[in-house]
């Protein structure tokens, strides 16, 4: 293994093998402990997209909430799952199936289309025309805004689904889906996330479907693997310290280096990661 591969694995805390039950417990306990430490807060908020990551984290969050309510013999704590479609969502059936599996304390729906379109229009009026790609980032940031407003109203924390297979390529919108209060999935790669969902009894189609950011109007449900130019199998192997093709390694390491600014503290005169 190269020095870079080893340092990436260390930085992202990936284990070559996991015990799914142990990982589930570790992450539920983290969320419970955090809520108990900051006792003004009484729950979590997360967007439910119908994809693998939000299904996993929402389920873990709901289990944490259920345990806390049971232990304290009350109904103080809640998990708020949020449907955040842009107009009509292509995989709305998967969102419904995910909600059925998660059984959130509360489900809210905020359609982000009007806000995103208004933002695009206001920029245009100011002489700034954004591409469809940049509009995709606006969708991710609008979802972040909605989740923080909901968290503010309900005294909750915003969860983030960032995990090692996403962090390594920086495949998230800075201050969009990358913004959160807690990131309980850190350290897991994509196939380990699947293992956890399987252990939790999740319907297979929710974790076997192709991961997609689904942010672009012109390329709906574009597969992450197509956008990244590398497969999650390759990314996961790399993160587990395995040998992969030279071509895939170069793509992954290229993304990693280019997106360093998304994983490090904001550049200032008091840090030097950027030098
Ligand atoms: N070296 C540097 N130091 C400090 N800041 C730097 C920088 N390079 C760029 N930047 C800043 O970062 C900005 C670019 O970053 P950002 O705005 O995030 O945008 P960018 O990384 O260009 O795009 C986000 C990517 O993440 C994907 N994504 C987004 C959301 C969700 C998901 C998903 O899987 O669900 C995937 C999306 O499809 C797209 O490929 C630049 O405009 C600049 O402001
Ligand atoms: N349409 C949506 N409705 C609600 N939340 C969304 C939506 N799209 C994205 N999100 C939020 O943004 C996060 C990042 O999206 P991402 O695509 O990485 O994860 P995912 O959809 O849960 O899983 P997958 O990677 O398998 O597609 C999601 O976990 C979810 O919390
Ligand atoms: Mg998705």
From TrEMBL:
Mg(2+) binds at residues 53, 166. Pathway: Cofactor biosynthesis; NAD(+) biosynthesis; NAD(+) from deamido-NAD(+) (ammonia route): step 1/1. InterPro entries: NAD/GMP_synthase (IPR022310), NAD_synthase (IPR003694), NH(3)-dep_NAD(+)_synth (IPR022926), Rossmann-like_a/b/a_fold (IPR014729). GO terms for biological process: NAD+ biosynthetic process. One of its GO terms (cellular component) is cytoplasm. Homodimer. This is NH(3)-dependent NAD(+) synthetase. It comes from Oceanobacillus oncorhynchi. The gene is nadE_1.
